[in-house]
Amino acid sequence: xxxxxxxxxxxxxxxxxxxxxxxxxxxxxxxxxxxxxxxxxxxxxxxxxxxxxxxxxxxxxxxxxxxxxxxxxxxxxxxxxxxxxxxxxxxxxxxxxxxxxxxxxxxxxxxxxxxxxxxxxxxxxxxxxxxxxxxxxxxxxxxxxxxxxxxxxxxxxxxxxxxxxxxxxxxxxxxxxxxxxxxxxxxxxxxxxxxxxxxxxxx
Length: 203
Description:
Largest sheet: 2 strands, antiparallel
Distance between the termini: 22 Å
Order of helices and strands: HHHHEEHH
């Protein structure tokens, strides 16, 4: 029998459902942290843009280095928010085919799609992690009106990709084991409040 997120008895760790449950726990712990950092990044982007536009209007010139700073913030924000998008089912999906297939066939098609997605994300992670390590070790920065460190953006890229891979692996194991969860399901705004009992059950 498959286990669901609301089951009173946890699935054995060695089963697919047990792996899915462990990945679900990891997602529900890590995702709020990354989402908070990404939200702060969005706030800083807004503040930097408002200040720059105000300076251009009032003083006739912008804030030195604001373009370089916003570029770094944008990369950090986008990649650290990838796990949140996967957790909330917000990535682009086309269900025209799977909605019309029998459940078993739909699960197979979704599983194949997840495997292909994992292969791409894994390749992207491998391609970016070495550059992130070098950038961090050398404290890489971008030369301009001011020297802006770009290593945070380099580091954020593989972190975001690894966290996205965790969600994809969870979704794959959930599909194969028929494990039911709030992770990967499209939610309404502020639905975290409704998820609180489920999150508590996973503690």
